[in-house]
Amino acid sequence: MSDFSIEKLQQELGYVFNDPALPLQALTHKSFSNEQRNDELHNERLEFLGDAVLELAVSDRIYKIYPDIPEGGLTRIRAEVVCEKGLAKIARRLDLGLGLRLGRGEEKCGGRTKASLLSDALEALIGAVFLEGGFGAACALVQKVFAQDLENSANIRYGTDYKTALQENLQARFGRLPEYQLTRVDGPDHGRVFTIQVSFDGRELGCGEGSSKKQAEQNAASEALLHSFVVGLEDN
Asked: Which member of 12, 40, 44, 51 is catalytic?
């Protein structure tokens, strides 16, 4: 584990372990443990625990900070970040590959760069933090380490462009686009309020108002997303 420091890792995680054996176990692959005569603990059980803790901690965070994104959107954001590829990306940022304890075979096979081993080690570290510090400490770690990735995913998928989000969803599922119709215009010339209705296959999905037609369309699409417009729509 040359050029790797547990102290630096703890700083990156925002958590200092009272038990130094825990982060060491989290970085220990089964192949290393199997080669040790003292049958040293490996990270599989911690990874099992961390997997569940991470999903709940991420769910808790995005539920609170993105009140306008519907359930399906939150699920997609979480899945994009809390997957092997997403976790491995974060693990590489933390230089976990340098800290992995691997058996000779895994070492020769490039185990330090394998996405599966890196993501497992990160989940094991989260499990170790939870085991010692509790759910609050795990949530603090998620806020420090995962916040930017979650924000990037949310912005890419949604941002404030609800119209695009609605369009992409329906296009992907049905191969067709929603329709927007101006249903009402209120107010004086200098303060118009436009009302737009968005429909799909003759069914109203949402209705929105705005000082411009563009803004009214965004608000209509937002309402469609927020009110689970997919209920009752059947995939082909």
From this structure: 51
